[in-house]
Specification:
The chain has one domain: Acetylglutamate kinase-like (Carbamate kinase, 3-Layer(aba) Sandwich). Helix content is 35%, strand content 20%. It is built from ten helices and twelve strands. α2 packs across α5, α3 packs antiparallel against α5 and α7 runs parallel beside α9. The radius of gyration is 17 Å and the shape is globular.
Length: 267
C-alpha cells in the first residue's frame, strides 16, 4: 500500500491542458497525451490537480465570479455550466491517463467541499488517502463550490494543492505552467525576462510586487496567488517547483531529479 506522504502533487496548468482563448472550451489532448507519456515511469503515487483553463475561467467569468459585486443568485446560476465544463475536462484527462497505464480516478471538490468567503471550511480528505493507499492516482481540479457567505465561490487548484500538502504532509509539489517559472517581467511582453530561481521568506514580498494575474481570463488570481497559497503552509518543509510544462521532457527531468530552468519556492 502507498503512503500518502510519499505522494507527488502535480499541477497541470489550465494554459497547458486547454486552449484558453478558444470558445467553446477545448482540451489540448496532444499536451495531455504527452504528459501521460512522461508520467509512465513514475513510481510514487500522484495527485494530479487540473487548472480550469478555458473550461473553468470562461464560464466563471461570464457569471460574475471574481467580481465582488456579483449577487449570490447569479453566482449560483453559473454552477451547472461550470460543473459541466470541469467534468468534461477531468473526464478527458482521466481517459487519457488510464489509456496510458496511469491508473487514475477523478475526485471532484464540488461533491464534498464547502467554503466560507472563499476559504475552505470542509474538505474531507479521507477518501483521498484511501485512494492513494489503494494504489490509484487521483485527478482533481479547481471547481465551483457552495459558499456559506457568497452562495458559491471558485476553489482554485492551487488552494487545493496547498491544503492537501498540509493535511497529508506531502513534501513535493510540482506546478506546471506555460512559462519557465516566476520571472521578473512578463515574458510574453519581454522575451529577455529572467527567471527568479528561488523564492523564500527573504524575497517573497519583493517577488509578489512584480507578479499579478495572468494575461488571459483568470478568476483565481494568477501567479501571485500561487505563491501566496504556497506560503500559507510556512514552516512545514515543503518545496514547490514552478516549471514550464509546455516543453517536452521537463516533467520527466524533474521526476528523475535532473536540473531544469524553474523557480523553487522554499517554505
Amino acid at each position: 500500500m502507498s503512503d500518502p506522504r510519499d505522494t507527488i502533487l502535480l499541477k497541470l496548468g489550465g494554459s497547458v491542458i486547454t486552449y484558453k482563448s478558444e470558445t467553446p472550451p477545448k482540451v489540448n489532448t496532444n499536451a495531455v497525451q504527452r504528459i501521460a507519456n512522461e508520467l509512465q515511469g513514475i513510481t510514487e503515487p500522484a495527485i494530479i490537480v487540473l487548472g480550469g483553463g478555458a473550461h473553468g475561467h470562461q464560464a466563471a467569468s461570464s457569471f460574475g465570479y471574481g467580481n465582488p459585486e456579483t449577487p449570490p443568485r447569479r453566482l449560483l446560476l453559473g454552477i451547472p455550466k461550470i460543473r459541466h465544463n470541469m467534468n468534461e475536462l477531468a473526464s478527458t484527462v482521466e481517459s487519457i491517463m488510464n489509456n496510458n497505464g496511469i491508473s487514475s480516478v477523478v475526485i471532484s471538490p464540488f461533491m464534498f467541499s464547502l467554503l466560507d468567503s472563499g476559504r475552505i471550511i470542509s474538505f474531507p480528505y479521507d477518501i483521498i488517502s484511501k485512494t492513494i493507499e489503494a494504489g490509484h492516482n487521483i485527478i482533481t481540479h479547481g471547481d465551483v463550490c457552495y459558499d456559506t457567505r457568497f452562495g458559491a465561490s471558485i476553489l482554485s487548484g492551487d488552494t487545493i494543492m496547498t491544503y492537501l500538502a498540509r493535511k497529508l504532509q506531502i513534501k513535493k509539489i510540482l506546478i506546471g505552467t506555460d512559462v519557465d517559472g516566476v520571472l521578473d517581467e512578463d515574458p510574453k511582453k519581454n522575451p529577455q525576462a529572467k527567471i527568479i530561481p528561488i523564492i523564500s521568506k527573504s524575497n517573497k514580498e519583493s517577488v509578489l510586487s512584480m507578479t499579478g494575474p495572468s494575461g488571459s481570463t483568470d478568476v483565481t488570481g494568477g501567479m501571485a496567488k500561487k505563491i501566496g497559497d504556497i506560503f500559507l503552509i510556512a514552516g512545514s518543509g515543503i518545496e514547490a517547483t514552478i516549471f514550464n510544462l509546455t516543453i517536452p521532457n521537463r516533467l520527466t527531468d524533474l521526476l528523475c531529479g535532473r536540473q531544469i530552468p524553474c523557480t523553487k519556492i522554499i517554505v
